[in-house]
Each structure stands twice: as structure tokens, then as C-alpha cells.
Amino acid sequence: MRQLAQRAEDVPAVFAERFNLGDAAAVAEVYESGAVFVPESGSPLSGEQINAANGRFLALGLPITVRPRHVHTAGDLALLIVDWVIDGTDRDGRPVRVAGTATDVARRGPDGYWRYAIDSPFGVREKV
Fold first, then answer.
1. Which of 8, 25, 59, 110 is the most core-located residue (most Cβ within 10 A)?
2. Structure pTM?
3. Measuring CA to CA, which residue among 30, 1, 50, 20 is closest to residue 107?
């Protein structure tokens, strides 16, 4: 398993690798203490709620594909815009497609590794 990201632009790939292993504890390590996960606007989650929310995605049993679109770094902070998709057939044979464009903030910790401070997987929504 890949170590935590040493560069801001690698955070999504580290997340995806750990997610695709199905390892909830390894996924949790990609978040800093006090991080916020925003599954929908106005509903931020923290602490164990983040693990539970990611657990629902992990329970699909399907891999995630990530494609960073933009990474903007200022010192120890980074804004990441990342296209992602979970696509396939679930364990019951039903087609599943969950996708979005995340608006995330990562921070370099005192140990030199980058972790999510804010993870908003559906941060960019298309206007209808």
C-alpha cells in the first residue's frame, strides 16, 4: 500500500488506492484530525461520521477512479478539484454509477504528509 501523499497532487491517488483495497482504516488515515466531509451542501460530517460516510461508498464493493483536474497550492494548503467515478455492478448484480467533481482542501501536516482537511465529493454540481 502506498504511503501518505508527499505532494498535494498525490492525495487523490493515495485515497483511491486505499479505497480500492477496501481498507476503511487506511482510507481514514488520508484525513487529518478534525477534517470535515461534506456529502451534501450544508451537511458537514466529522470524526467517526466521516468513516461511516466513506464506509457506505466502500460497501458498494466497486473501485473508484479519480482524475485530478486542478491542484492549487499555497504553502501548506492545497485546493484540489477532482473528477471521480464509482462504476460497475454491485454484489446483487445491479448497475451502479456514482460520480462527481470534488472540491477538496488538503493540508501538509507537521510530518510532511498531505491529508484531506475538507472533502466535498460533490462540491462541483452542474447547474440544471
1. 8
2. 0.91
3. 30
Q: Give the number of other CB atoms < 10 A from CB of residue 34.
A: 9
Under a CB-based contact definition with an 8 Å cutoff, are residues 39 and 45 in contact? yes
CATH topology of domain 8-124: Nuclear Transport Factor 2; Chain: A, (3.10.450)
The whole-angstrom separation of Cα 16 and Cα 22 is 10
What's the pLDDT tens digit per position in 70-103? 999 999 999 999 999 999 998 889 999 999 999 9
CA distances from 105 to 8, 23, 56, 67, 71 (A): 9, 22, 22, 16, 10
